[in-house]
Design goal:
Elements lengths: L9 H15 L4 H11 L4 H20 L6 H16 L5 H13 L3 E3 L5 E3 L14 H17 L3 H18 L7 H25 L1
Antiparallel strand pairs: 1-2
């Protein structure tokens, strides 16, 4: 590819192509992530720009509930999880994203300037009836949660997050059956992987 030719804008075309896969070809997301992982060895800037675009897309869907396209959002966070599996993004970025889903626009500033985050704080961007963030969290955990279960430090961080996730779920008065089953399947999957990991380490 003509990487050195600024007119061709190869980097931009590759990033757009990978994001298109995430939005339209769900089953091909792991392959697209692996391609980016290989490419990042010689073109690290392409990966950085892709991750920036993913972060912008995620934030945009949280800021504009009326304009969001749920399947595209799920594909985008799945791509983030697959990039973590490919060892090209950090654990911190994954957990920052997970906590973003729980806390974003649920902040309150006290008279002393202390910022409190609590899912029970009302939010126009995440009303009690909106379950989009629940689905995004499950999507990330389903895609790369197994990797957290192989290491005690990662597993401890996951366990702590699950507590916050359960608190967040309590802010939703009712979960439709398909969402409730999705959450239970995710938690059961993670519990089974954690048990299996503990058995193999003993």
């Amino acid at each position: 590819l003509p990487w050195s030719d600024p007119v061709e804008r190869v980097e931009m075309h590759i990033i757009k192509a990978v994001l298109r896969v995430a939005k339209t070809k769900y089953v091909d997301i792991p392959a697209a992530a692996q391609c980016m992982a290989i490419l990042s060895r010689v073109r690290p800037n392409a990966l950085l720009k892709l991750v920036d675009r993913i972060s912008e897309t995620i934030l945009s869907t949280l800021d504009s509930p009326s304009k969001r396209q749920p399947q595209r959002g799920l594909g985008t966070v799945r791509l983030l999880g697959e990039l973590f599996i490919a060892n090209v993004i950090s654990l911190q970025l994954i957990f920052d994203t997970l906590y973003l889903f729980i806390n974003y626009d649920h902040e309150e500033t006290s008279s002393t300037g202390t910022i409190t985050t609590d899912p029970s704080i009302p939010s126009e961007l995440d009303p009690p009836s909106d379950l989009y963030r629940v689905q995004l969290i499950c999507e990330i955990l389903n895609s790369c949660g197994e990797k957290f279960c192989r290491d005690k430090i990662k597993l401890d961080r996951l366990t702590r997050f699950i507590l916050y996730f359960q608190r967040y779920l309590l802010s939703k008065p009712a979960l439709p059956t398909h969402v409730e089953f999705g959450v239970l399947d995710t938690l059961d999957f993670l519990e089974a992987k954690a048990r299996s990991s503990r058995r193999h380490s003993n």
